[in-house]
């Protein structure tokens, strides 16, 4: 049997998750990674087997198509923060779903969920 105290804890957890969801900052789905590439200058060492230049491509799928854009070093922290916020959003959705399922399972049939 589920105690009223347990139901109150679940409801409190749900309220905290919903409050955090409302404070979600700007976000973006995608991935930024380091890719070694040649610069294209024929006199550069990278053109003759030397070390290549690091690049920061951003891959995002929009409308079923993958888009790639190189991220400037000055933009890197901002873009990575947007992507981290996206992942945090989905963690919140998963946690909220888990709490709501527990609340549904804890209540007797026919009793509305607040």
Can you offer a commentary on this structure?
This protein has 114 residues and is of the alpha+beta class. The chain is built from two helices and five strands; from the N terminus they run αβββββα. Strands 1-4-5 form a three-stranded antiparallel beta sheet, covered by helices on one side. Strands 2-3 form a two-stranded antiparallel ribbon. The relative contact order is 0.19.
Order of helices and strands: HEEEEEH
Helical stretch tally: 2
How many domains is the backbone divided into? 1
Average pLDDT score: 90
Oligomer: single chain
Give the uncertain stretches in residue-range form.
Answer: none
Fraction in helix: 40-55%
Beta-strand segment tally: 5
Q: What is the CA-based Rg, rounded?
A: 23 Å
Strand-residue proportion: 15-25%
- Rough outline: rod-shaped
Largest sheet strand order: 1-4-5
Q: What would you call the structural class?
A: alpha+beta
- The end-to-end span amounts to 19 Å
Largest sheet: 3 strands, antiparallel
């Amino acid at each position: 049997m589920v105690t009223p105290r347990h139901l109150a804890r679940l409801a409190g957890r749900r309220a905290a998750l919903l409050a955090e969801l409302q404070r979600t900052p700007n976000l973006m789905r995608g991935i930024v990674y380091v890719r070694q590439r040649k610069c294209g200058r024929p006199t550069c060492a990278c053109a003759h087997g030397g070390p290549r230049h690091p690049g920061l491509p951003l891959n995002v799928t929009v409308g079923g198509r993958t888009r790639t854009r190189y991220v400037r070093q000055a933009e890197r922290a901002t873009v990575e923060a947007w992507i981290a916020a996206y992942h945090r959003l989905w963690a919140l959705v998963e946690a909220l779903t888990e709490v709501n399922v527990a609340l549904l399972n804890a209540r007797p049939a026919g009793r509305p969920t607040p």
